[in-house]
Design goal:
With 128 residues, this protein is mostly helical. It contains three helices and two strands, in the order H-E-H-E-H.
Length: 128
């Protein structure tokens, strides 16, 4: 009955997105001195969710209820506008650090949504 709730799927997707974005950011920072390297980023979670074509729908808990479904969430990597360095490298450590903080906040937000939803679920079951 509670194994397929959209709020948990969304929190999971949000946390996964933040983790993948953090990996791209760390790759950018690792290549900060590589001549000709151009930084990359992942599109924003909200934009990726809107462009997925997936409508958020109620999930069926048993036959006779509404039918809903979901699929895997792909995130496109996009090239970031380069800052312009003499060696052709476009990575700005300061900008990458700001992106890393933003990704951490997104991950923390996803965990907070998950924990809050778990508390609501436990309360509804009388196990608070």
């Amino acid at each position: 009955m509670f194994d397929d709730l959209n709020v948990f799927k969304t929190a999971y997707a949000m946390a996964t997105h933040a983790g993948q974005r953090q990996a791209v950011i760390s790759r950018n920072m690792a290549n900060a001195d590589t001549p000709g390297y151009q930084p990359r980023d992942i599109e924003a979670f909200q934009k990726a969710l809107e462009n997925s074509g997936r409508e958020v729908a109620m999930t069926a808990t048993r036959q006779g209820h509404l039918f809903g479904g979901s699929g895997a969430q792909p995130w496109a990597e996009v090239e970031v506008k380069p800052a312009g360095d003499p060696n052709g490298n476009g990575v700005s450590i300061e900008e990458e650090m700001l992106r890393a903080v933003e990704a951490k906040r997104q991950h923390d937000r996803a965990l907070a949504i998950y924990k809050s939803s778990m508390n609501v679920l436990r309360s509804s079951l009388g196990r608070a």
